[in-house]
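Ticket #4471: structure export looks truncated?
Reporter: QA, pipeline team
Priority: medium

Steps to reproduce: submit the single chain below to the structure queue and open the exported record.
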Amino acid sequence: MMRLDQAIAALRFEPLLDAWVLTVLAAFCAFSVGFALWHRARGAVWRGVLFAVVLFWLAGPRLVEESRQTRPDIALMVIDQSASMQVGGRTKLAEQARAAIEAQVHDAGRELEGLELRTITLPEGGTGGTRLFGAIDRALADIPASRLAGIVAVTDGQVHDIPATPPGGAPLHVLIPAKGEETDRRVRIVSAPGYGIVGKSAELRVVVEDLGVPRPLLAPAAMVNLTIRRDGEQPVVVPMPVGQPTTLPIPITRAGPIVVEMAADKLPGAVSDLNNRAVVTINGVRDRLRVLLVSGEPHPGERTWRRLLKADPSVDLVHFTILRPPEKDDLTPLNELALIAFPVRELFQVKIREFDLIILDRFTNRGLLPPVYLRNISEYVRQGGALLVSAGPEFAGVGSPWLSPLASVLPARAVMDALGTRGVGVVDQAFRPAVSALGTRHPVTADLPGWRDGVPPLWGQWYRALRSSNVQGDVLMTGPNEQPLLVVNHVGEGRVALLLSDQIWLWSRGHDGGGPQAEVLRRVAHWLMKEPELDETALTASVEAGVLSVEQRRTEATPPGNVTITSPDGAKRVLPLEATHPGRGTIRVSATLPGVWQANDGAHVAYAAAGATNPLELADLRATATALAPLARQSGGSVHWLEPDGAPLLRRMDAGRVASGGDWIGLVRRDDHIVTGIAALPLMPPGLALPLILGLAVLVWRREGG
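Actual output as written to the record:
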């Protein structure tokens, strides 16, 4: 039996005349009946009945019966699988809630009949945080709004795309895998410089925050100890107030990347210790490189040295050329000389420690520098200084620096006879400089421009070199007959390099194809000044895009060994290094855990800072309802904690009713359907209408005529 609302809904009209014609007829009939009633004419009522039947027939009444197919309502469930959901047992609780809700829908009886459940997962999204509602919007694009019963989001509440209004026009229920609001302590870097000047301190601005911990307004700030470690050195403990930014000075003691790790004391009851640490990398750079260049005499390569050093704006160059040696004194009075007096004492005794590098270019010991000053240069090298000697024919003569106190730091001597004849130690012939076997593994000369697939390049020719003996140190380049051409050596705490030719300037002018003159001299100078990237034996580590790259550099011609990788949580792995280039071994491993990673090959230790792959996601690790509760209430939904009772029960409800209770959540009944067929039955067919109208007309005529 059809209900009244269904019968009304099934009544349709198909007028036989236009609507305006029916309107005019209805007005005329109403006027006629009203006029008759006003004059109390006989048969006025029956006249009205006749007019009503005629108008009803002309309106074409039909009883339409529709065949309907009810469509199931759809509930959307979103499972958050972002990085913060990996804390504690959240993932397990979320999966248990998922299984429980799916079981209720699939195994329930009449209560959940006609309900379809669609489940989507939200994976870790990179650097944009948890984009929960972006995933919901994409899923709702395939769900008609007329069938959406509700949205169930299983998340820890750390969501970074919360809209102003609830999505979908249905109740939003948030299930949080925790017992209640949690607390967390984090170390946050407010500001950090990208680099620091060697010999000075860089300033870090850091704040320790206790999230979810109520603090009375007038109560003093709690104190916490912050432990600072720099490149694995002995830690320094600094007390600081919670919630107040504090400036920390970090001494920059060397050039290169310096990894600084800061760790705060644990907060009792905190959800995780992951945010108790923060890591920052500061690159140590030299403010100004002070270089002293002493040219023993003018020669074609002198301008090349000056041009090379002045091209770097960070270099403060002091350059002196000895134009007139003492033996050429022509007794000209000093007040008539236009040349500046050579400041021997100031440079080589008073200010010698201020120079980062001393270059002796074709320097000859002709008595201009007393032995005490040359001895000062030797001591300068032993105590950590850098000396580069570019030798010419003078190195094989009587004025050779080898015959002075400099001999104690020089890595080789030129061959000369008893009389100091320069011709014995000088080789005047064309040759092409080449990298030695050791040089292919040394960072100063490895992979110089021009190398292709390990094939040595044919650089431009030189035409003069020196024969040497008493070689101490590493021969990186060779000259004629594979004689040493470039020799480097460690002396005490300092370093020294000797170039046994004065014709490297030919490369800078492109002679015979030229060569990597600027690159060779740049690398030699940086190696002398102990730049970390040019250390011949070193271990370096870096983290980029979640991958830890470790590189070992050695000059030995042996396969690389193993390296021990220590992750920020203390876990250790021993892995073999893979030989990639001569003298180099590398390895790449996944490094998704933020913090300081350590690599140890037995001789060296390297540190690398790994930041959070998703800073927004890991900035706050608490499970909280603070962010999503207002949106859930606005939608008519609710927030439930999954511990200890697990997932709530599902119930169906009519629109406008309360959508949740203590242990249940409600999903709206939509009763959406599609029409599969229509049957129309005329209520006043002609066979019925005409007799009825004629009968009423006769009755009206008789009543009004009688």
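Status: closed, not a bug. The export was complete when the record was re-opened. Leaving a note from the reviewer for reference: The first strand starts at residue 11 and ends at 13.
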